[in-house]
TrEMBL record:
One annotated GO molecular function: RNA polymerase II cis-regulatory region sequence-specific DNA binding
Protein name as annotated: Regulatory factor X2
Organismal lineage: Eukaryota, Metazoa, Chordata, Craniata, Vertebrata
Pfam families: BCD_RFX
Record-linked PANTHER family: DNA-BINDING PROTEIN RFX2, RFX TRANSCRIPTION FACTOR FAMILY
Sequence intervals crossing the membrane: none
Chain residue ranges for the region called Disordered: 202-231
Amino acid sequence: MSDFPQQVIQTKVSVVSAFAQTLRRYTSLNHLAQAARAVLQNTSQINQMLSDLNRVDFANVQEQASWVCQCKESVVQRLEQDFKLTLQQQSSLDQWASWLDNVVTQVLKQHAGSPSFPKAARQFLLKWSFYSSMVIRDLTLRSAASFGSFHLIRLLYDEYMFYLVEHRVAKATGETPIAVMGEFNDLASLSLTLLDKDDISEDRSSEADADARSLGEPLVKRERSDPNHSL
């Protein structure tokens, strides 16, 4: 496509990049699901996870996260209890998927049909990730025996939450999931373009400094000796 206009190339590359990224994430999600299935079918590992999870100081987690996330304490407590109950019942991977889907539905239902839905969905992902990282942190500090299992489950659930939210946003905006991701890629490209411009400005400043040095006098001295120089 070397002979095509730059705008056409940029559009094509953005779409292909979004598709490739989506394909990698879906493949990763599949691999995580296969690995997590073995954990969720192991009774001894489930019992150990429950034992370790019951020692987590969720009150402290909520206290630290509330200032950042500003989530209702009742919602956080309900999620904690539902998670423990679902784990205790040794639910299958499909049942966990249904639970996660229901969590997304309950959290985002108040924003359904609203222009703020995509923003609310992104905020939910950030808050979910923050809370889960706080729980993993607590498990780490307590040297939980089931840390590896929780880490794997956390990776899977984060990835699946991203998948669910991505599709909910696509449905709400009337776009495809790949188109939704393409918008983020466009924003990233814009950011990189701005960074490149900053780099160019810095390079020009460096060149100006080099020119000053080549004239045999410091830049400060030149500025002071320049009557047109503005302080």
